Amino acid sequence: MSQAQPRRPASSEQGQDGAIRYGDVFPAVSGGLAKKPVAPQDAATMQSAETMAFGETIKGGPAATMQSAAARNERMGVVAHDQATDVTAVQGVSVSETRVPGGRIVTEFVAGQAVGQYLEPDDAAAAAGDETKITIGEALEAAGYAAGTRPVERSDAAAIQAAEVRATGMDGNIPGGLAAQAQSAADSNAWGARDGDKATLGDVLSNATAKLVADKEVEADVAARVAFAETRNKQDVTARPGGVAASMATAARLNK
What we know:
Structural class: mainly alpha
Helix content: 40-55%
Distance between the termini: 13 Å
Strand order of the largest sheet: 1-2-3
Largest sheet: 3 strands, antiparallel
Number of helices: 13
Radius of gyration: 19 Å
């Protein structure tokens, strides 16, 4: 179910003070949050959010990962039991959902950055086998919602191009199409100084279904090609949580 993020090598899991930081357990996290030690109240808040969304804490999910890291940090005296990370105290943790045919895609955020994504089939669909399939356009729209505030990067543009090619059967960017828009946004963002001035995934992927000249159901080979395109264009060779590849992988599983 979870779009798990690979952990960094053990040698880099601790800072000089021995703390386990967000960047150690969630490699896709960036900026100031990546350097912050995981704090007990952050973990407690994420546990509450998961419980509200799923009725329980997800085994091996972000809340469990944060609880383990926070407990170690507390034992080492790096953080206090009632401590929360400053950016998390301000921006919070949250769980959002995107409805798709047959279920929902749930994404978890810490201080606005996605740290996990899950597929939750509807009870009726899980019991009876829903014939409705998620399309590439719908999966792109879900990515635009889940990671919508994140600036478009070259890896996103590559993933969107791969998705558009699979949806339309046409090689290369379609003039004015999704891939062309994503590539233009990524090129522009590369020169931007402030994230607030950059084009986001939400900007590019809103109404993606209507923007595609053709569409098709998401299958395993589609998800694999999109994931390859995204990861080969990222320095850390990992897919963005809640991003295009993650959304396609989730859709492919739901379509089985």
